[in-house]
């Protein structure tokens, strides 16, 4: 297992440099102080890129507005927020229209673990854009400390009466449910590639 990312803005910036401008990412937002965490991330990511990062809120007639917002301009970095209330029909429509969402600037989806589970279940092609680029953000705009992460993993093991090794085996065999807790668990284990 690799070390958990300690500087998400820097790490995502490095991945943008490596993967090129068409990169897609998911940031699993914290459950508290969400706005402060987003502001901190945007500030750090903007500093790394040396330019502004736009936040696109998905409200109202989502798909048409999102496509327009992503296209104008198409080369800047964007964070798409407010996707957690998206239903299965929205994710399917987004997945079908994925070629209309391609842009030269990086895209970051700001999601809860429930939102990520919905994306994985209803938008597999969008999920393939993301690949293993899923980061779990802490409440201060950084990633959880190692002890916070280990405590959360222990809580999940205790609650579900399953070890982390068993969760990984089930995910590898395709038998792990796509429930948000399991998605979060895999990300905390640095196995977002199995989501």
Précis, in short:
The protein has 195 residues and is of the alpha/beta class. The chain has nine helices and five strands. It has one domain (8-144): Rossmann fold (3-Layer(aba) Sandwich).
Element layout with pairings:
Blueprint: H1 8-19, E1 24-28, H2 34-49, E2 53-57, H3 62-71, E3 77-81, H4 88-96, E4 107-111, H5 113-122, H6 124-130, E5 134-136, H7 146-160, H8 164-173, H9 180-188
Parallel strand pairs: 1-4, 1-5, 2-3, 3-4
Helix pairs in contact: 1-2, 4-5, 5-9
Structure characterization notes:
With 195 residues, the chain is of the alpha/beta class. It has one domain: 3-Layer(aba) Sandwich (Rossmann fold), CATH 3.40.50.300. The protein has 9 helices and 5 strands. It has helices spanning 8-19, 34-49, 62-71, 88-96, 113-122, 124-130, 146-160, 164-173, 180-188, and strands at residues 24-28, 53-57, 77-81, 107-111, 134-136. The protein has a 5-stranded parallel beta sheet with strand order 2-3-4-1-5, sandwiched between helices. Strand 3 (77-81), helix 4 and strand 4 form a beta-alpha-beta unit. Mean pLDDT is 81; it is low at 1-6.
- Work out the count of structural domains: 1
Give the structural class.
alpha/beta
CATH superfamily: P-loop containing nucleotide triphosphate hydrolases
Q: Main beta sheet: strand number and arrangement?
A: 5 strands, parallel
The SSE order reads HEHEHEHEHHEHHH
DSSP helix fraction: 40-55%
CATH topology: Rossmann fold
Radius of gyration: 16 Å
Unreliable sequence segments: 1-6
> What is the mean pLDDT?
81
Shape: globular
Shape-level CATH architecture: 3-Layer(aba) Sandwich
SS element count, helices: 9
Strand-residue fraction?
Answer: 5-15%
* Distance, first to last CA: 16 Å
**What's the CATH class label?**
Alpha Beta
Number of strands: 5
| Strand line-up in the sheet with most strands | 2-3-4-1-5
């Amino acid at each position: 297992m690799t070390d958990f990312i300690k500087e998400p803005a820097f790490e995502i910036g490095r991945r943008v440099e490596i993967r090129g401008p068409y990169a897609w990412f998911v940031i699993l937002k914290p459950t508290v102080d969400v706005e402060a965490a987003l502001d901190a991330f945007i500030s750090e990511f903007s500093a790394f890129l040396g330019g502004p990062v736009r936040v696109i809120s998905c409200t109202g007639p989502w798909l048409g507005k999102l496509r327009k917002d992503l296209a104008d301009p198409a080369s800047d970095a964007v964070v798409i927020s407010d996707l957690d209330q998206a239903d299965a029909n929205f994710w399917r429509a987004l997945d079908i229209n994925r070629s209309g969402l391609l842009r030269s600037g990086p895209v970051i989806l700001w999601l809860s673990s429930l939102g990520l589970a919905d994306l994985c279940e209803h938008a597999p092609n969008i999920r393939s854009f993301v690949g293993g680029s899923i980061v779990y953000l802490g409440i201060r705009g950084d990633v959880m400390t190692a002890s916070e992460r280990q405590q959360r993993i222990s809580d999940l093991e205790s609650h579900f009466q399953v070890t982390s090794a068993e969760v990984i085996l089930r995910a590898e065999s395709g038998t792990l449910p796509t429930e948000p807790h399991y998605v979060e668990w895999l990300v905390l284990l640095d196995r977002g590639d199995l989501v």
